[in-house]
Amino acid sequence: MFGRSVWRGNPARNAIALTFDDGPSESTPQLLEILARHKVAATFFQCGANVERLPAVAREVASAGHTIGNHSQTHPLLCFRSAGFMEQEFSRAQGAIQAHTGVTPVWFRAPFGVRWFGTRQAQRRHALTGVMWTAIGNDWKLGAPAVVDRLAARVRNGAILCLHDGRELRVRPDIGVTLDSVRRLVPMLLDRGYVFETVSQLICPTT
Ligand SMILES: [Zn+2]
Description:
It contains eight helices and nine strands. It has helices at 28-37, 48-53, 55-63, 83-101, 119-125, 144-154, 176-191, 199-203; strands at 5-6, 15-23, 43-46, 67-70, 107-108, 129-131, 135-136, 160-164, 195-196. Strands 2, 3, 4, 7, 8 and 9 form a six-stranded parallel sheet that branches. Strands 1-6-5 form a three-stranded parallel sheet. Strand 2 (15-23), helix 1 (28-37) and strand 3 (43-46) form a beta-alpha-beta unit. It starts with a strand and ends with a helix. It binds zinc ion (ZN).
């Protein structure tokens, strides 16, 4: 009813996807460093307003080989909103991401995971597929040990894990919990034999 979405990849493959919402933020480069250290590719659902505020960081994410998705322009709660409002949020974010990174997103994550009437038409107009998650870290409210425990307990083949490299549209948000969680989680899951893929690789595997 609210448009096509995916929650996970193929359970027969030991691949999983890390996804980060609400960026880019001033601390995103620190996250890129951690991912690069482990040669892990991820998917970043960026807000258009944050891309316009920090275009160089948005570009850095793209040039590091990560996939960029659309997370709306201003991170509104999409319920009880008009189809016109929704279309604006989708198209402004597509435009900002295209202008500053050269990427045309094909994946969309609804702010707060909330979709509403009109989401489907807007998604279709921009050829976007919705991406929900298998497990969410609650990294905006828990400490790093709890985030790591939560995700480690819920991860399985094909899982899409949701974390945040920003905090909605906040300027200079504290994402220390997210960084600590990723520092611990990535080596732990590599040890368990998982392979990290972007959402594109996870949902449309070529091998
Ligand atoms: Zn968000």
